[in-house]
Amino acid sequence: MTAKKILFSLGITVLCYCSYAQPNDFISIDLTSLNAFGSYGSNWTIASNAEADINKKGYMKALPGTGAIVNIVSSKSKAHLITKEAFGDVELELDFMMAKESNSGIYLQGRYEVQLFDSWQKLRPTYIDCGGIYQRWDDNRAGEKGYEGIAPFTNVARAPGLWQHIKIKFRAPRFDDKGVKMENARFEEVYLNGVLVQQQSEVTGPTRSSAFNDEKPTGPVMIQGDHGNVAFRNIRYRRLQSNDTAVQTNSKNGRRRDLPTPIIVNAEARPYLLRSFLNYKNKMLTHGISVANPNQVNYSYDMKTGGLFQVWRGQFADATDLWYERGEPYQRIVPLGSVIVLPDAPAVAVLNDLQTTAWPDSVAFDDMHNKGYALDENRFPTFTYELNNITVTDKVSVPDASGITRTITVATPVSNLYCRVISAKQIDIVGKRTFVIDDKSYYINISEKLKPVIRQIAGLQELLIPVTSADPVIYSITW
Fold first, then answer.
1. Contact assessment for residue 374 and residue 443, using Cβ atoms and an 8 Å cutoff
2. Which residue intervals of 239-374 are DSSP H helices?
3. pTM of this prediction?
């Protein structure tokens, strides 16, 4: 474990060369047709959604309907998609889904690429990975033909077949009244799945495979269509009007100089466990423990309820408040990766009527008796507690970089006892033992011996496992 006083993760001072005036409202691109785009190939299809296989290279299927666009490359058609409209300074955001080992990109002004790639599980990303600024290319250049690519700060790419989100704030190059370039194009910010991965990333000219070799004040957005199968939805933009005023900060997340230097905690050679308060929705959890892993698969556990309530991929935590402050509002850490929020509720409960009995959302103080946790040889914790006189052991492990495996065992099950794997707005079955949760945000995989039940209650779906023996309930969360 390391806990270093550094400026976010890079230890640098950043100069933000412009601030933007009050932006216009976002405008959505209509995806009931391809009318917003110029000429396009048959590889592009309007769909309601897309389907990709986490285990099958290149597999992607367009589902009937409207609201999304799907690119399925063939030997006959692999055209790019280029907007009819041109943009200067712009903020662009969209959802995208990658097929396994697929490759695509978003070119601002048809010239400057933010890379989209199936970078799932990669620990040290480069410019070719998701959220990277792709390199430039010159066949006449001595030595290496490619140059100036910019890696993302961290890799928070999700698994193939899941919807991801990218948000790009782009500043166009500046020219004088004679057309001479005065300032390079710059990616002010790029957020991938809610995490800042680029800031003030300057490009001196068009990146590789751009639609144009020159530079202009405006240009269209181009979506790459020749490298791999990919889907998009919720594409929207707003034009920005800039003021050329400098704002100086001392970190990637905009801390001013008079704030404490951030203290960043990451796991290096082995898992690291950290007790702290944790924000959860609109409340503060006081009995939280968070676990960092060297492969950057992290999670938080509530020892007051037995709830595994958040998981994330990327850097572990900002512990600045924990270091400098005291008291309930401050004794907390802030996850730095792309967080998936899960229910903070007991893992097991008695449901006398499966149709009508609601799952408890909290635990009374006298009903929960925590026995602490023990670490195995890999430093994976097993939590032990008594809940309403039911003894539960709950092991959370990270066997690889795909996600988290949870093993819940009840020594002596009682009648009508269930384990709730997940509660969500939407649970879809995508395999014999695989479920995709909340509009393809993450996967749940359950072990073969289990007999899952999906019930609808209080406007949500719940994936339940009847606990009828001392055999463990084993499932994994993959994202």
1. no
2. 320-324
3. 0.90
